[in-house]
From TrEMBL:
Its EC number is 3.4.-.-. The lineage of its organism: Bacteria, Pseudomonadati, Pseudomonadota, Alphaproteobacteria, Sphingomonadales. Pfam families: YgjP-like. Keywords: Hydrolase, Metalloprotease, Protease. This is SprT family zinc-dependent metalloprotease. It comes from Sphingomonas plantiphila. It comes from the Bacteria.
Length: 224
């Protein structure tokens, strides 16, 4: 039996998209603003085999706890705790080490990852914006479940902080994608041509990496 399917309309969606939330197992059908719900829902309900596979392939939670291994800029690194170290985490010899009390260790690791993500994504966004001759009013990071980045008409670009876990070339492909939206607020041929120009090559392999590893990236820092 197929679990309930949540229907969500997104103002920038151009086609329907079926996804499974790695954290909760929720099944979401995203539709363009005016797409009819009935036919789309019937199509989604017919994807039982795909839904079952996606639910079975959900990555187990990987809390930010001492002794765990996570991805950081595409490389596997260990997490360590040493009460004699400063509270602020640091990367040392393939490990991210944080001191201070054991209580709150997980929060300190995530805050550090978010801060590093914001710093790097802000710098890369500024670089691509300068190349493209556009302005970006603000760069922010959050933890959206279904998107790696978004660009508003106001010039605000938001990213998933989890991009700091992905390889740098994957992260930069996402930045090029969002900055290109400052010129083309659509996904037409001119938009994709600009993304390739900014990124320097076809970003399809990097986008495919994100799709293939999305559940794993969203498993890091989860407790249950």
């Amino acid at each position: 039996m197929i679990p309930p399917i949540e229907v969500v309309r997104h103002p920038r969606a151009r086609q329907m998209r079926l996804s499974v939330d790695n954290a909760t197992g929720a099944i979401r059908l995203t539709l363009p603003p005016r797409a009819p719900v009935g036919p789309a829902l019937r199509w989604a309900e017919g994807q039982g085999e795909w839904i079952a596979r996606a639910l079975a392939n959900r990555a187990p939670p990987q809390p930010f706890e001492p002794g765990a291994t996570i991805l950081y800029q595409g490389e596997e690194v260990g997490l360590d705790w040493d009460s004699g170290f400063p509270r602020t985490p640091l990367l040392d010899d393939g490990k991210i080490i944080a001191g201070g009390p054991r209580e709150g260790y997980e929060r300190r690791i995530e805050r550090w990852l978010r801060r590093v993500a914001l710093d790097i994504l802000s710098a890369e966004t500024a670089d691509y914006a300068a190349r493209s001759g556009v302005s970006v009013s603000k760069v922010a990071v959050g933890d959206p479940k279904g998107r790696w980045g978004s660009c508003a008409s106001s010039g605000v670009i938001r990213y998933s902080w989890r991009l700091i876990l992905a390889p740098p070339e994957v992260r930069r492909a996402t930045v090029a994608h969002e900055v290109a939206h400052r010129t083309h607020m659509n996904h037409g041929p001119a938009f994709h041509a600009l993304v390739r120009t900014l990124y320097g090559r076809d970003p399809a392999p990097q986008r495919a990496w994100l799709r293939a590893n999305a559940m794993r990236l969203h498993s890091f820092g989860r407790i249950s």
